[in-house]
Amino acid sequence: MRLWIRAAAVRRRVICLWLLLLGFALISLALSDLFNQSQDQSHQNPGPPRRPLLQRIPSAPDLEIIVNSWDPALELGVDVAPLESLQEDQLLYVPSSQSTKSPLQRKGSYKVILPGVSKEPVTPAPRTQGEKKITERPPLKDRETALELSVVQKFGFNEVVSERISLHRTLPDARHPECLGEQYSESLPSASVIICFHDEAWSTLLRTVHSVLDTAPKQYLQEVLLVDDLSTHGHLKSVLTEYVSHLDRVRLIRSTKRLGVGGCRSLGATEAAGEVLVFMDSHCECQKGWLEPLLERVAQDRTRVVSPIMDVIDWQTFQYNATQWPVRGVFDWRLDFHWESNFQVQRKDADSAVLPVMSPALGGGVVVIDRHFYHSVGGYDPGMLLWGGEQIELSIRVWSCGGSMEVVPCSHVAHVDHHQLPYHFPDQEVLQRNKIRIADIWMDAYRKIFYRRDTLAHFIRQSESPNITECLHLKRSLGCRNFHWYLTTVYPQLYIPQDRPSLSGELYNVGTGSCADLPRVQGLQGAAMNVAPCSGTGSQHCDLNADSEVRWGPMGALCLDKEGERVVVSLCTKQRPTNSRLQWKFIKLSGQLVHQQSQLCVEAVKEGEIPQSSTGGLFLRPCTHHPRQQWHFEQLVAPKGA
What we know:
Blueprint lengths: L1 H43 L18 E5 L23 E5 L14 E4 L9 E2 L10 E2 L3 H16 L3 H5 L13 H4 L10 E7 L4 H14 L5 E8 L9 H7 L5 E5 L5 H12 L4 E5 L3 E3 L4 H10 L3 E10 L6 E2 L5 E5 L5 E5 L15 E2 L7 E5 H6 L13 H11 L3 E13 L11 H15 L4 H7 L1 H9 L5 H9 L5 H8 L13 E6 L4 E4 L12 E3 L8 E4 L5 E3 L5 E6 L2 E6 L12 E4 L4 E4 L4 E6 L11 E5 L9 E4 L8
Parallel strand pairs: 1-3, 6-7, 6-9, 7-8, 11-17
Antiparallel strand pairs: 1-2, 4-5, 9-16, 10-17, 11-12, 13-14, 15-17, 18-19, 18-21, 18-29, 19-20, 21-22, 22-23, 23-24, 25-26, 26-27, 27-28
């Protein structure tokens, strides 16, 4: 009996165990179904997307796009997946608070935080067990300064300030009142705006695009072509692709190799559908009414290449500054481009503010040209490397091969002036090779003047020759005029140096072992001459010409002058005979440079030697045989044909 009772108890326990296991299995199945349903719902209604669906989210007043890999300096403040799992061109949306929104940023705009850079960088502090994460932040001012310095080094301008500005900001109207009453044809040609970029900042690139879309009349704007010249920054990859896909009449073209400015613009030109090509830099902002006057000028003459007045956006503050009219593009004998203002405009109605001005050259910021004429003159030279000098090459070619160039005053486009950082510009030898191509193709015998003023280009040319066979063939087939015609007809204001032996080159001072030099100052008129270590680059070149002028600099537009006892520079006069105050003579035997009007000699004076002046420089002194009054001209190179 007892055995039976014990057996029954064991069976009950086994049955209970099986029932318990069965219950556990049923609970597990129920939980599994619930989990699967949750997963299905999560797939149907995903959380923060990893790809940019650039549409407004009603609940989020603004969005910040965070690109590239995880950065410990970025504290998201929300429960999201670790950012180190994101690939280079993936991104994550993070809603920002209303209080952090810039007052200039309108709804519907987007901002970008660059990889490795946050608005408020923090330094993670070590944590003890059971302690919450603590961050130690440097003072706000120091953090902002460090951040701004970092982005200036990256882009050449203050991207932190740019990122806070609306992508749709409106610039003040700088046009002359007479421009507002100008009437343009209703049948203007269509335009393709070609914007090439390489590792451009997000805010400046998108502000350029939106500026074109917001200001160009739809009936004239055929398209905006964004041409990516093999950018490497993550925000210019799938992020930009998705963004552009939501913009009307905007196409994105990507190059599979680095082309440089000329090649990139040529790629855009081959894809363009508009009758007129508008080449525009990727950091511009257009004013209202900028496109119509440009199209009008091209429509009147299809061989005419035009540019708007290029206003300036400060690289540090992004403040807009209007350019004073009149202005035109020029270059010097080192083949460096300049915008020249306040020159004497040769026209009948000098008071008119709406008449275009003929320009020897145009900058690369905005260039407008008929598409068929562009291709007929060969477009940008494919042999030009990266960037630098391509605008001068195209300018000489257009003028020499049947076209013309002008600046249109009723059109204004602003351009960000980059901070002059050494790493912002291409390799110096790349720039010199571009200049060598220009000199050898277009300058004929005048190229020796260029080589005397750019010794690096001279020595590169001595060791290698550019392949310019196709360009010379194109030049002949188009019947292009020579450089002498260009100088006498298009650019007669450019002084042609004489470069006589022993009377040109670096002006070397025996007593100091240095060369005459002009410090870089804002205003050249009346700037004081000084001495500095001889550069050996040709940048200190000067020549004593047959008119007894000592012409200074690569353009030769400045003459040695006197102001009291000090030797200064002033603009050379065109009157003949030359003003006696600007006349000098050089005594080769003694090495003295004598001011003819005062009969005093030029002496190099060291700092502190003159009580009334804390700086040294070149002064006029009674002639002696002191070594610091002994000079001689050193020609650094003697190009063939000199």
